Structure formats: structure tokens, C-alpha cells
Amino acid sequence: MSDQLLKLSKVRKSFGTAEVLHGVDLTIKSGSHTVIFGPSGSGKSTILRIMNLLEEPNEGSVIFQGIEYGLGVDEDNTPRGKAVNLRRQVGMVFQQFNLFPHLTAIDNIALAVHSVTGKSKVDARERAASELKKVGLIKWALNFPGELSGGQQQRVAIARALSLDPKLMLFDEPTSALDPELVGEVLATMRDLADSGMTMVVVTHEMNFAREIGDQCIFMEAGYIAATGGSDFFDTCTNTRAQQFIGSVL
Amino acid sequence: MEEKPTLNFMWHLVWDYRVDLLKGLWTAVSVSITSLILSLILGLIFALFKMSKYSILRTISGVYVNIFRGIPALVSVIWVYFGWSLLFGHNFTVYQAGVIALTLLYSAFFSEIFRSALSAIHKGQREAGLALGMGRIRIFISIVMPQALKIAIPNIGSMYIGMIKDTSTFTVIGLAEVVRVTQTINSQYFQPFVLYTAAAGLYVAIAFLVDYLFRIFEGNFSFPNQGKITKFLSKKKHAQVRELIIKNS
Fold first, then answer.
1. Residues B97-147: tens digit of each pLDDT
2. CB-defined contacts A:B, below 8 A
3. Residue of chain B minimizing CA distance to A106
4. Of A153, A178, B80, B100, which has the highest C-beta tally within 10 A?
5. Is the ipTM of this complex over 0.85?
6. What's the predicted TM-score (pTM) here?
7. Within 10 Å of residue B96's Cβ, how many Cβ atoms?
8. DSSP string, B66-127
9. With an 8 Å Cβ cutoff, are A138 and B249 in contact?
């Protein structure tokens, strides 16, 4: 139980009349590196966004460290945790970086630290600087996102998420919007993070990276988890659709 | 043969009555600035109503905007000054009536300006704030609003010039603004060409000044920041960050 960090059970999600997730069960263990891949529209981003309740599931539950979060009707009337409290423990990195363009790199991070932890602005900037240093961008602290390359922006976004000491990091296709030559620096940052023992869930099309760090591999198709496996998934997988998909992407 | 009338322009009147004309200008500016502040607040509230998930608020906002966007300033101020007193027996001063009339009209326009600026902010910005665990009000104040203001400021500037011009119609209720002052002087000397040219000059001068001021605001809301005000205000912060950069390098 103790190493079970996040559990999704029987999660269903519809947008309008179209159901995109048809009852998904998934457990994320502490320290594990889960990689999720699959064709467009298979529901992989949606499942990630349900993990921090950016999307509210229509059915099923999101349980983080034994506490159930989100709205919904609870049969035994036990109050559920608020989404904001879940999100404060879960970091997320987006495909489009989503840095705040009106704030410098350091203020992007310091705003989060100051407003979420209540630290003073001066202390928040100290923390922000140490996070920027970790991703190798301290020299760019006073630059605005528009003055940084895509790869640098994504590393600032990772630093911003890490500045709140998350217990789980979610990555939603973090390299898909990058020029090919910038992918490497972001993957290197993520690799360091994985090596440091951070629990990570990564939706990605970077199959080599997935093979390298993934110890729980999940292939999704049409709103279902179609195949799962451990770190040897890429060599031992018997699901033909998954094999085809891996073959077409690699 | 008809004799051509000799033109006798008494340009010295402009100088002689400079204090009265400038007082009139000050009244126009003061009424319009008060209205600007009030209508920005009201406009923002109606913009948020329009974007609300509750249909009743959206309807209220839609009706309000369509009513007051359609009423001319002249009609509005007559209604507020005379109509209100007739209906409710309470008299506004001419100054108050002018402010109320302008605020009602321009809050409708500002509501639309804010709505379009707010909806131009990519939803990923809100999501990033939510994902970090920030509260909704904080996201609005620190993330969405600064970016929306940058978009809205040039439009607000144009609207404000319109507000100053609309104060000229308040001469009908006796507000001593530029046109009223001009009329009063004119009734003594009958020098309409001279006096109304002076009035036009004052309006144009103030339009240039407003344009200049709003460009300064715009610079301070741009990123990377071009503004001297924000640069001055963030001096201390930048000093700390520069120290941090050296310490962490």
C-alpha cells in the first residue's frame, strides 16, 4: 500500500456524447517511471489530465496516497479531497510549455512558489534560482519566455513544476512541440529527474526514451489500455497493434 | 454691388479667456477620468458575467451591453439628469449626472473590449496555473489579467478619447466643460470661428496627450518590458535576481 502513490480505478470520461475513456484502471507506484503511448485520440493525454484533475472523470475514482479526490457523488458520503490539494503535490509539464509570457523565467517559478507555498517573494526567488540552476538556465533568469528557445522554455517549465516539491511529475508529450535538435536537452533533463528517483508518468512518442526509462509501459488504443508491461515491454510485447505502433514510430 | 464683410478675428480672446477655457478642459478631463475608472471596473464585471457559466449572468450582461452601447451620450445625460429627478425626485449635480451617463455608456464598450481580450488568452495559461495548484483568483489576477490588459490598453485609449469628446454634449445640462465655456464667451463677443477653433485645438491637444500616456502604459505592460515605470518599480527585485545569478553560476 505504502508504495502505491496514485490509483485510477474504472475511470470513464466523455466529452459531450463521445466517451474517450471506457473504464481505465491504473496504479502508479512511488519511484516508478510510467510511459504511456498510443495513436492520436487513444485517450493518453486525457488519462494524464485526469491524474491531476484538469479533467474531471465522469465515473471512477482518483486516489492519491489513499485519499480520493475530485467532485462526484460519494456513496458513503466521506468528503473527497479538493483538486487544488492534489495538484499541489503533482507537477505537470505541457506539450506547449505554457510558461507565462509576461513574466521572466525566474518570475514564472517564483510566482508559483510564492502563491502556492506562501513563501515571501524574496525567498521564492531564492528557490526559483536554485531550480533554474538545476536545469542549467540560471543565466537566463531575467529573460522572458519569448527570448528563450523551445527547449529552454520547456526546461523552465520543468523547473517551475519541480519548485513545488511534487511527489509525482506528469509529462504530456513534452518534446512534441520542439524542433528535433532541441529534443535532446529536454530528454536529458527528464533523464536526470528519473535517475533522482522522481515518480514520473510520461506520455510520449519518443520510443527510445520510453524504452530507456520506462519500468511500467502502457499502450493505449481507442480509450482502453490495450497492453501493459514492465521495462522489457518493447522486446516482449505480444500485442500486435502495439508492435505495429512501436514499429511505425521507431 | 454687395460689399464683402470684413473679417475681424479677435484671436486675443483665446488668450484673454485662457483660464476659463482651461478650467473647462479640466472639467471635461476630470469627469471623463472619473468615468473611465468607474466604467473600467463595471466593464470588467460585465465581461466576467458574459463569460460566466451561469446563463442568467450572461443574459444580464448581454442586455446591459446592448442597451447602453446603443444610447447616445446626449440622450443618456438628459435622461440621467432630468429623467431620474422626475421619476425619483432626487437631483444629481451636473457633474454626477455626467459621470453616471458616461459610465453607463462606456462600461458597455469596455465590457466587450475586456471580453475579447480575456478570451484571447490561451486556455493553457489557466491550466498551467491550475496544474501548479494556484487558486482561481490568483490565476486571474497574476496570469490572465496582465496579459489581457496588454491587449486591451490600446482600445481603452481610443475609447477614452471618445469619452472626453462626449463630455461636450453635457453642455445641455449646463456642465461647464469646454463647449459650454466657449458658448458663454461667444455670446459676449460673437466670435464663433476663433472660439470654436480654440475649442477644437484643446480637444486635439488632449487627444495627443492621451495617446502619449497610453503608449507609456502599453510599454509597461509589454514583454519583454519596454516601460520605465515597471523598470523603476522592479529595480530592487532585479538587483536580488542578479545577485542570485552570480551566486548560482
1. 999 999 999 999 999 999 999 999 999 999 999 999 999 999 999 999 999
2. 96
3. B241
4. A153
5. yes
6. 0.88
7. 15
8. HHHHHS-HHHHHHIIIIIHHHHHS-PPPHHHHHHHHHHHHHHHHHHHHHHHHHHTS-HHHHH
9. yes
